[in-house]
Specification:
With about 850 residues, the chain is α/β, with parallel strands linked by helices. The protein is built from 33 helices and 23 strands. The strands form five sheets. Strands 1, 2, 5, 6, 9, 10, 11, 12, 16 and 17 form a ten-stranded mixed beta sheet that branches. Helix 1 crosses helix 2, helix 1 packs across helix 4 and helix 2 packs across helix 3. The longest helix has 30 residues. It is globular and about 95 Å long. The two termini are about 20 Å apart. The C terminus is likely disordered.
């Protein structure tokens, strides 16, 4: 593997030249945004040679390719990550300094690619990074959303969604590939034509269609010349303007196709609280899946003649239920376009598709109304009907006369198409994303499927890429780790366990905590600039950043903050270590209660932060527009990591791993991957509280919990809850938080009260927080635990996760990519 040395002078000339030809300016006259584009294009020049060489090697070696299909890819900023993985970061920093530019400022000009929402999309990004770094051939397949996830503004404490115009200045790293465009069809009807040999052909007619145009983004492996591809599909109208319709005065018809194409790629996860939103979401899913499947088959056929062996060279990993329509689309391509018989096509499909389940929450296992599905995707619906018919026969053979099994397992039932059932019936692998999650799937949510086909089920505990979340996000700590144990941890995180010998070393403890302090100062500066709130970097930084959902229990956290505030007000002289509670979260646009929780956090912050009588002992900060770039600052600065989901509800979590890697201590329930983290670090190095998953499941199935008992018997909890409805935090509108109060006590509804056991876990949570304070007062003890957390994080690299997928599911071959000694860009 030859790695070309960095040519500093060439890079500088390239940046200056790009500024001149793009903007007709000198480097001194250019804006920071213009310099960013020039630097990104110069970096792309360095990537292109490796990208070409990777494609050449793929042609030569003909490896099996994994197509990672996901509605979301939360990539984060590309420039810094690409420079790190090219191993050119320090050299580029130096080259830019010589041009009078600051790389940190330039990196800040890049928007966060708004292609994802939370953990699901960030995991997909980490996986692509690991696939390239480990040298495996991969395509990420998704949508080039114009606005992606919204940009979050906080106005008067409320979340306001505004379009995130991340493409406003273009995307210098992407390559548009119109030569690989595909046609995707919606609606119409299916006609059957019989050929001269008596074979039936299914023809879709009367449909609307769009052209899917791929835009490719490079995914750079660390120091190995491998560049994989994230292929995100843009939509174009087949006929952008119907002049004939316009001339007849039918202006709507004239732009109909143009509007359909625009809508498809406008926004990630349209609000689907209404039928129009559901329809658009299904169209989006089919759009990128159809294009990706067609492209994968085309790629295979360029080098191979026997489509029945497609699975030997391609595997589709379906990231949750969103891409499950790939099963039926592959069947359509194989039967209708490649002429295979059903059984031949089914054999190929069931050896190609694998499914990752990311949730235990029933509402996230997608189901589509038959009326909608069959109208939008008539041929796909026919195929799923046939898959279901045959699957039901299998169930009947295995469980004769058991109608209940059919009700629970059928793909089409009760007027719905059940996508998870389709993925399990057709997939050759079904995996959960943490050991506890997989066990719950096997024995609770997907029990019937597990009993019928146990060989399909396996676990792949999630991971994160240490290259972004330590090497790039926390350079001070990364340098310290390298100085102590060498740099092998960058591509083999298990090496970080060598830090364990430093956990008791007083000098190492001081250095480690000084780095944490510097990172807290950096975050405090960000908070001052963005929130106008002064926070003390010597206080405990207690952080909860993640998607806002009731099961993640941001409400428990803020209720506890209200409780602490009451304690300080009632006992002003009680010992209390100053604390800064930091929240960051976006709520789905249509999720009313989650948005109300954001308002509560901000209302509590307004009261506490402006109360001079508590002498700054408590501060509350809500960081607006939580995203990958500010996440890197937050993880590096956190002392305490809040992982407080209701046990049994979090599939894995990956934020918990990023905190651990950066030396934060976990306060959490035994849920998701936290269980495995505690195994690695020992329970004495975390603060565990609350019900176990078994206890939660037992209450859910058998009852026996009434939150009114706690309300009636615990005066301090009652005081906190009454503050939700007595105007304490909303004097202008005392009823503002009534819905949150009702959700906990359910005084007016027949639904179960306190669904997520917030009050049940409250006292245990408050006790755990007392243990946090006690531990933090012991400076050496805390430093030891913090170093130990970092040293025990080796298991939680996405490199390890991907290697497990490769060994146990995909069976890929490694590529070795060498660069030619001289390239077009260096001549």
């Amino acid at each position: 593997m030859s790695k070309r040395p960095f040519d500093k002078e060439l890079f500088k000339r390239s940046v200056v030249y790009n500024v001149k030809t793009l903007y007709r300016r000198t480097i001194e006259e250019a804006t920071q945004q213009q310099i960013f584009s020039a630097v990104a294009l110069a970096t792309k020049d360095a990537i292109i040679d490796a990208w070409l060489a990777t494609q050449e090697q793929m042609k030569k070696q003909d490896p099996k390719i994994v197509y990672y299909m996901s509605m979301e890819f939360l990539m984060g900023r590309a420039l810094g990550n690409n420079l790190i993985n090219l191993t050119y970061y320090d050299e580029v920093k130096e080259a830019l300094e010589e041009l009078g530019c600051d790389l940190n400022v330039i990196e800040d000009q890049e928007p966060d690619a708004a292609l994802g929402n939370g953990g699901l999309g960030r995991l997909a990004a980490c996986f692509l990074d690991s696939l390239a770094t480990l040298g495996y051939a991969a395509y990420g397949c998704g949508i080039r959303y114009r606005y992606g996830m919204f940009k979050q503004k906080i106005e008067d404490g409320y979340q306001v969604e505004v379009p995130d115009e991340w493409l406003k200045n273009g995307n210098p790293f992407e390559l548009r590939r119109p030569e690989y465009a595909k046609i995707v069809k919606f609606g119409g009807y299916v006609d059957i034509e019989v050929d001269e040999r008596g074979k039936s052909h299914f023809i879709q007619k009367g449909y609307q269609s769009v052209r899917a145009v791929p835009c490719d983004l490079p995914i750079v492996g660390y120091g190995n010349n491998v560049v994989d591809t994230l292929r995100i599909w843009d939509a174009e109208a087949m006929n952008s303007f119907r002049l004939d319709a316009f001339d007849k005065g039918d202006y709507q018809k004239a732009v109909e196709e143009e509007n359909l194409a625009k809508l498809l790629v406008e926004v990630l996860y349209p609000n689907d609280n209404h039928m129009a939103g559901k329809e658009l979401r299904l169209k989006q899913q089919y759009f990128f899946i159809s294009a990706s499947v067609q492209a994968a088959v085309d790629r295979y056929k360029r080098e191979h003649s026997d489509i029945r062996k497609f699975y030997e060279k391609a595997t589709f990993q379906l990231n949750d239920t969103h891409p499950t329509v790939a099963v039926a689309e592959l069947m359509r391509v194989l039967v209708d376009e490649e002429g295979l018989e059903w059984d031949e096509a089914w054999d190929v499909t069931t050896k190609t598709c694998a499914y990752t389940n990311h949730t235990i929450m029933a509402e996230a296992l997608e189901k589509w109304p038959i009326e909608l599905f069959s109208r939008l995707l008539p041929r796909i619906y026919q195929i799923i009907e046939e898959i279901n018919r045959r699957f039901v026969i299998e169930i009947q053979k295995k469980y004769p006369g058991d109608q209940e099994k059919i009700r629970k397992m059928a793909i089409i039932y009760d007027g719905q198409v059940k996508m998870a059932h389709l993925a399990i019936a057709a997939g050759y692998s079904v995996n959960g994303v943490a050991r506890l999650h997989t066990e719950i799937l096997k024995h609770q949510e997907l029990k019937d499927f597990y009993q019928m086909m146990p060989e399909k089920f396996n676990n792949k505990t999630n991971g994160i890429t240490q290259r972004r979340f330590l090497l790039h996000g926390n350079p001070l700590l990364a340098d310290w780790v390298t100085a102590h144990i060498g740099d092998e941890w960058i591509t083999d995180l298990s090496q970080i366990s060598k830090l364990k010998i430093y956990a008791d070393d007083e000098k190492a403890q001081r250095e480690f905590m000084n780095i944490k302090y510097q990172n807290k100062v950096r975050l405090a500066k960000y908070i001052q600039e963005h929130n106008g709130i002064t926070v003390d970097p010597r206080s405990i930084f207690d952080v909860q950043v993640k998607r806002l959902h009731e099961y993640k229990r941001q409400l428990l956290n803020i209720l506890h903050v209200m409780y602490l505030y009451n304690q300080i007000k009632e006992h002003p002289d009680m010992p209390f270590y100053p604390r800064t509670f930091i929240f960051g979260a976006k709520a789905a646009a249509g999720y009313r209660r989650a948005k109300l929780t954001i308002k509560l956090i901000n209302s509590v912050a307004d009261v506490i932060n402006n109360d001079a009588s508590i002498n700054g002992k408590l501060k509350v900060v809500f960081i607006e527009d939580y995203r990958v770039s500010n996440a890197e600052l937050i993880f590096a600065a956190a002392d305490v990591s809040e992982q407080i989901s209701t046990a049994s509800k979090e599939a894995s979590g990956t934020g918990n791993m990023k905190f651990m890697l950066n030396g934060a201590l976990t306060i959490g329930t035994m849920d998701g991957a936290t269980v495995e983290m505690v195994e690695e670090m020992g329970e004495e190095n975390a603060f565990i509280f609350g019900l176990s998953s078994d206890e939660v499941i037992n209450y859910e199935q058998n009852g026996g919990y009434n939150p009114m008992d706690i309300f009636n018997s615990d005066q301090e909890i009652r005081h906190v809850l009454m503050q939700l409805i007595n105007g304490y935090y909303a004097p202008q509108d005392p009823e503002m938080f009534r819905d949150l109060y009702d959700s906990l006590l359910n005084t007016k509804s027949s639904d179960r009260a306190d669904t997520y056991f917030i009050l049940k876990d409250f006292r245990s949570y408050a006790e755990a927080h007392k243990r946090v304070e006690e531990a933090y007062r012991d400076e050496k003890g805390w430093a030891k635990k913090a170093i130990w957390n970092t040293a025990c994080s080796g298991k939680f690299s996405s490199d390890r996760t991907i290697q497990e997928y490769v060994d146990e599911i995909w069976h890929l071959d490694k590529m070795t990519v060498s660069l030619p000694q001289e390239s077009a860009s260096s001549k």
